[in-house]
Amino acid sequence: MKRNKKREFQSSELVKSFARIHGFEDKLIAFEIKDFLEDYLDESLFQEIVSVNLDDKIIQIKINSPLLKNDFKMRKSFYLKKFQAQFGEEKFNDLQIL
Could you read off the pLDDT of 6-42 as tens digits, one per residue? Predict the structure, then answer.
């Protein structure tokens, strides 16, 4: 059992170093944010999220549902602080809801 976990950790580190070398580390962080939202939101709400991107320290979340979009806009600072607490303050400085 411990061996599998050790391999998972090593492969994760391998992917992170590969991303750092080839310059798509932001995309990996965007995937982690999307995974976080999947755990945080209800399944039906999560289905309304089209994409999550990270561009120049700005998280861009594209949402189909007008109600969910409005909720994210109203609670923008809450979500930004949540992401900064989870992934580090230095990685993000703004949140855009599209």
Answer: 444 455 766 667 666 766 677 778 888 888 888 888 8
pLDDT, one tens digit per residue, over 62-90 is: 999 899 899 989 999 998 898 888 888 88
* pTM higher than 0.70: yes
C-alpha to C-alpha distances, 82 to 1, 5, 24, 42, nearest whole angstrom:
32, 27, 23, 17
Residue 95: how many other CB atoms lie within 10 Å: 21
Cα dihedral 62/67/70/45 (nearest 10): -50
Buried residues in 38-66 as b, exposed as e (16+ CB within 10 A)? eeeeeeebeeebeebbbeeeebbbebeee
49 forms beta bridges with 63
